[in-house]
C-alpha cells in the first residue's frame, strides 16, 4: 500500500496514537477528525499563522503495559482552503521512513535523533504548552503527576509571600489538569485567584486556558472579566475561561464588556475564546465594531484575517461584513481592509 498521509503512516506502523492541537489551546483532536484532516477531507480546525501546529503522541499497539509514548511536535503549512498540505506530509514521511523504515516506534540512536530533529516540520513548543500536554496525558492515563505537583497544590491552596517563586511550571499545569479530582484546590483557587501574585496568577491563567475548569471556579472567574481598572486581572480571567468560550453565560458577560474592551482583550478573544463569537450574530457584530472603533488598521486586519482562517468563525465573519447596513465604524474599517488587500 502506498501511504499518502500521516494518518496512514501511523496506521500502517501498527501504532495507537493521540493528537493534540498546540497552536491555540492544547486540546485533543479526535482520531476520525485527524484522519479526515490528513486526507484533506476537512480543514484544520485551529489554524494559526497559516500553519497547523499539533502534537502526535504514539506507541506500539497491543502493549501489555501503559505506553511510553513517542512525541512529534509538528507544524505544517495549510493551503488557501485551510487544508493540510499533502506535499509537506509526504516530505516529512519520507524523512521519517528514510531514518526508521515503517516501524516508527523503534528506538532511535543519537545520530538518528539528531537527523530527525533537522526536519523543517518539527518545532519546539513553549514550556507552558509542553507542560500542558504532559499534564493532560498523565491525567488521562491516570499516571502520577510530576514531582512539582505537591508544591504547586500547596501554594495555590495556601499562598505564601514567596513560595510561588519556587514553583515549577509543570506543577501548575498538573494541578490545572486535575482540579476535578481536587475540589478543595478548586475552592481555594476560586477564593485566591484575584489576589495571587502577578507571576503566579499569569502562570495559572496560562495553565487553565488549556482545560475546562470546574463550574465552581468558572463562576468566580466570570465576573472578573469586567474588573474595573484591573487590566491584567481581566486578561487572566479571559484566558482562564477559554474552556467556557461557547457558554451563554460567558457570551452575555462579553457582550456587556465589549463597548469598553481593550485591544489586548480583543486579541485574546480571537486567539482563545473565538467559539464565543460563533452563531451569536449580535456578539460578533459588537466585537468587530469595537475592534474597528480602536482605529488601528493593523489590529483590525490581523483579527479579521484570523477569524476568516478559522473554520468555525469564517462563515459568521463573512456573513457580517458583507451586509449592506454595517455600522459606520465597521464599514470604514472593512473598506480599508479590503482596499489594502486588493
Short description:
By secondary structure, the chain is α+β, with helices and mostly antiparallel strands. The chain has 17 helices and 4 strands. The chain has 3 domains: 6-116, no CATH class; 126-229, no CATH class; 245-342.
Task: Write structural notes for this entry.
By secondary structure, this protein is α+β, with helices and mostly antiparallel strands. It folds into three domains: 6-116, no CATH class; 126-229, no CATH class; 245-342. Helices cover 52% and strands 8% of the residues. A four-stranded antiparallel β-sheet has the order 2-1-3-4. A hairpin with a 5-residue loop joins strand 1 (15-21) and strand 2. The mean pLDDT is 93.
- Measured distance between first and last alpha carbons: 45 Å
What share of residues are in beta strands? 5-15%
The helix-and-strand class reads alpha+beta
| Tally of distinct domains | 3
Question: Could you give the topology of this structure?
Answer:
Elements: H1 6-12, E1 15-21, E2 27-29, H2 31-38, E3 51-60, E4 70-77, H3 86-100, H4 110-116, H5 127-140, H6 149-157, H7 169-177, H8 183-192, H9 198-208, H10 215-221, H11 231-240, H12 248-257, H13 263-272, H14 281-293, H15 297-309, H16 311-321, H17 328-340
Antiparallel strand pairs: 1-2, 1-3, 3-4
Amino acid at each position: 500500500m502506498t501511504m499518502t498521509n500521516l494518518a496512514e503512516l501511523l496506521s500502517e506502523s501498527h501504532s495507537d496514537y493521540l493528537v493534540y492541537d498546540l497552536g491555540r489551546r492544547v486540546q485533543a483532536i479526535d482520531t476520525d477528525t485527524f484522519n479526515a484532516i490528513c486526507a484533506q477531507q476537512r480543514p484544520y480546525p485551529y489554524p494559526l499563522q497559516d500553519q497547523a501546529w499539533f502534537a502526535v503522541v504514539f506507541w506500539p499497539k497491543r502493549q501489555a503495559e501503559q505506553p511510553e509514548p513517542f512525541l512529534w511536535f509538528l507544524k505544517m503549512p495549510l493551503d488557501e482552503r485551510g487544508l493540510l498540505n499533502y506535499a509537506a506530509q509526504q516530505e516529512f514521511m519520507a524523512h521519517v521512513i528514510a531514518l526508521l523504515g515503517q516501524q516508527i516506534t523503534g528506538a532511535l540512536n543519537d545520530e538518528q535523533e539528531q537527523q530527525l530533529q533537522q526536519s523543517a516540520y518539527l518545532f519546539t513548543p513553549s514550556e507552558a504548552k509542553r507542560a500542558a500536554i504532559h499534564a493532560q496525558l498523565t491525567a488521562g492515563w491516570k499516571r502520577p503527576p510530576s514531582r512539582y505537583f505537591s508544591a504547586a497544590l500547596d501554594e495555590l491552596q495556601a499562598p505564601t509571600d514567596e513560595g510561588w517563586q519556587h514553583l515549577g511550571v509543570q506543577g501548575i499545569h498538573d494541578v490545572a489538569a486535575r482540579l476535578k479530582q481536587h475540589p478543595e484546590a478548586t475552592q481555594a483557587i476560586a477564593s485566591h485567584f484575584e489576589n495571587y501574585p502577578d507571576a503566579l496568577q499569569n502562570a495559572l491563567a496560562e495553565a487553565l486556558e488549556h482545560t475546562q475548569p470546574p463550574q465552581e471556579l468558572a463562576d468566580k472567574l466570570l465576573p472578573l472579566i469586567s474588573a474595573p481598572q484591573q487590566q491584567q486581572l481581566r486578561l487572566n480571567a479571559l484566558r482562564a475561561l477559554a474552556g467556557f468560550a461557547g457558554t451563554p453565560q460567558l457570551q452575555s458577560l462579553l457582550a456587556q464588556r465589549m463597548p469598553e474592551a481593550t485591544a489586548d482583550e480583543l486579541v485574546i478573544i480571537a486567539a482563545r475564546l473565538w467559539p464565543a463569537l460563533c452563531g451569536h450574530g449580535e456578539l460578533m457584530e459588537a466585537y468587530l465594531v469595537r475592534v474597528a472603533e480602536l482605529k488601528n488598521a493593523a489590529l483590525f486586519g490581523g483579527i479579521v484575517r484570523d477569524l476568516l482562517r478559522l473554520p468555525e468563525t469564517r462563515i459568521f465573519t463573512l456573513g457580517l461584513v458583507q451586509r449592506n447596513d454595517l455600522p459606520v465604524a465597521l464599514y470604514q474599517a472593512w473598506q480599508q481592509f479590503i482596499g489594502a488587500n486588493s
